[in-house]
Amino acid sequence: MKVDLHIHTTYSDGAFSPELIVDTAIESGLDVIALTDHDNILSYDIAKKYAKDNDKKLEIIQGVEINTIYKGYEVHILGYFPDINNHEFQNMLKFQQNARVHQAKEMVALLNKKAGIRIKFEDIKKLVAPGGSIGRPHIARAITNLGGTGSVMEAYAKYINDDSPVYVKRKTVSPHDACEIIYDSGGIPVFAHPIDVEISDTLAKELVSYGLRGIEAYHRKHSPAVVEYYSTLAEKYGLIITGGSDFHAPSVNHGTIIMGKNFVPSWVYDELLKEKKRLEIS
Q1: Domain 3-92+176-281's class?
Q2: What would the mean pLDDT of 59-85 be, rounded to a whole number?
Q3: Which of 3, 98, 121, 130 is the most buried (most CB within 10 A)?
Q4: Phi, psi of 4, deg, nearest 5
């Protein structure tokens, strides 16, 4: 069984529609995927319907990735099997979405005023699926599309980095709140790609008290040594291990696409299901 529990669509900063994700996952030989758009859950129903209507044999898990900022670090919390009708869960997504819109509009004003880039909020909004999560990639693409820079990478370097005079930091929920809300909704909160957070060890220990139930040990950024390190950390704190490609867009390397290409053992999915059943019983 091939598993990929971290995939993004056009409803956040992914390049593929939910339907294309389903097709690509099947072509890649995957049996189980989780859709984990940033602060957004809209892709799941679309993918499920497409798979059902077209008799696509693929297990699709409802997921989300909550982007938080804590002590200057981007801390991402994955959530699997949340009750999307839970009031606090819905409020968290609404808060995150409003913060994204506010950030983009403030940056549009600063880009016009300080950089002379006559960009509009609508130029950014049209780059994401309706109701999707606006983020840095969309702002960078909009700047480039309007000729403000020669490439998206240049836009990141000049305007999207934290030290840019036109960059506005987004207000977010804390990783502690994200874990607690996902857990209280019946979901499984997981620390995503911990290699990106220097304080991941101490923070993981903190978050256990707020409902953290897993660590993403298997990730395309993680070397075998890093996988072993975070697997050991998970065992230390009594957490489950998850994994995925964190797929956003095709990355051709010797003719292959990243989705499903990094190794994630099939037992990861089994452990996730066991945790889901445990939470349902408790």
Answers
A1: alpha beta
A2: 97
A3: 3
A4: -140, 110
